[in-house]
Structures are given as structure tokens and as C-alpha cells.
Amino acid sequence: MPDPSPAFGREATSRPSRASLRTAVVWDVLKDALDRRVEATGKDALDVLDTGGGSGNFAVPVARLGHRVTVVDPSPNALFALERRAAEAGVADLVSGVQGDVRGLFDVVGREGYDAVLCHGVLEYVDDPAEGVRNAVAALRPGGSLSLLAAGVGGAVLARALAGHFTEARHALTDPAGRWGAGDPVPRRFTAEQLAELADGAGLEVGAVHGVRVFADLVPGVLVDTEPGAAEALLKLEAAAAELPSFHAVATQLHVLGEKRA
């Protein structure tokens, strides 16, 4: 069976794409968590909820593993694209889309109905991140896993500085929301400590914190695309740095994985 990940998996042999370099770490951690949950529950197929899952970048690969996935997203266009992508992947019977958001999550799904919940790229845009995490955790069955992915402050500071925008970099460093200015398209960014505190406060036992896109957004695309072996080497570098706390401070995104306390 081909690797179902949206990323370049550890066992794949084809050359990783630029997009896969940005998702490989998260996919590997998520797949391991799903495998552990299968083993713990004895179920062949898990119930997975993807909040803000958009067009199915993670939902469809998870379904290709045989799991049932519900995607909640506020965009009708994204849900239409999700339906098309699931059909093309042959998993239309395992993927369902529902219009909604994490704030009103229980208007469209039930509580404690899922073995795993994905909350990727959501907390940056909600008015109350703590409420968003609480709702995501409340949707989990006891012992279920939450995959939490959000923008990191340090990555934005580093990117603005390397682009020569030093005032904006300093602004992001000191701004409570981690924004570099009025033109910043991201409403909020986090530190690894902030994300872990949100998870812990919502009833999660935090198992792992990873830095995502530590180098991938900084390396010139022409180097990755043309230098033989560069993409594969960069992928391995990203994986090696992801778990090291010293690199969390400069990652573009931060990933927290935790299990709901019984």
C-alpha cells in the first residue's frame, strides 16, 4: 500500500515535495498516535475529528489508513474540495464534512465521540484559544489524542529579521499576540510553553512538543528543488531538530500532542 501521508513519510522512496517538508513531522507523530490508539482500544477503525480541516490535507490520508473522519470547517468551498479529494482518493465513505467551527463545535458533533481530534491552524484565528482547546478535548473519549498545531512566535520573528524588516521583527517579539504589525495576516501566535499550558489546562496529558518548519521556510526553494539530495537531507534535518526544545523557539509552527486524562 502506498504511503497515505500528506507528507514524505519515513519509509517513502520518492523525492519529498516542498509541501511535504512542511507536514512530515506532524504526520509521523500523528500516525504513531493513531497506531497506539488502535492497539489500546483493539478497534480496527478509529473515529477522528478534524476541526478546521479544510480541504482534507490530513483528513484524507487518515481515512486512507482506514479510519472514519469528520471534518468541521466554516468554509463551504473547503468542504466541497474535501468531498472531491476524498472521492478521488477512494475514501468518500470514510470522510464526512460538516459546516461549523470549534467555538460552536457541539452544535454539529457530539461530546466524547472521538478517539482523536486534530486542531491544526485554528487557535490563531479564534477569539478565545483556551475555549477552542477545551472544546477539542471535550470531543475526545477518555484516553483519546489531541493533535494541536499553531503558529510559533519565534519563527515569525526570525523570518521578518532575515527579510530585513527589523522593526517588525522586534514588534513581533514584544507583541502579546506575536504579531509583527497591522498588516500581519495571522491574528495570534504562540510559544511552545503557551500551547502546552493551554493543553494542560484543558485536561490533556502532554506527551510531546515538536517544532515544525524550523528550516523549511528559510532555505531557498531553488536549492531544495535543484540540488541532488537536498530535499531528503532537509527532511531528515527537520525531523532531527523537531524534538529539541532549543529549536522550538525558532519554528514557524509548533505541534503539541497529548492524551485526554481519564
UniProtKB/TrEMBL annotation:
<keyword id="KW-0808">Transferase</keyword>
<dbReference type="Pfam" id="PF08242">
    <property type="entry name" value="Methyltransf_12"/>
</dbReference>
<dbReference type="InterPro" id="IPR029063">
    <property type="entry name" value="SAM-dependent_MTases_sf"/>
</dbReference>
<keyword id="KW-0489">Methyltransferase</keyword>
<dbReference type="InterPro" id="IPR013217">
    <property type="entry name" value="Methyltransf_12"/>
</dbReference>
<dbReference type="GO" id="GO:0008168">
    <property type="term" value="F:methyltransferase activity"/>
</dbReference>
<dbReference type="GO" id="GO:0032259">
    <property type="term" value="P:methylation"/>
</dbReference>
<feature type="domain" description="Methyltransferase type 12">
    <location>
        <begin position="49"/>
        <end position="146"/>
    </location>
</feature>
<keyword id="KW-0949">S-adenosyl-L-methionine</keyword>
<protein>
    <submittedName>
        <fullName>Methyltransferase</fullName>
    </submittedName>
</protein>
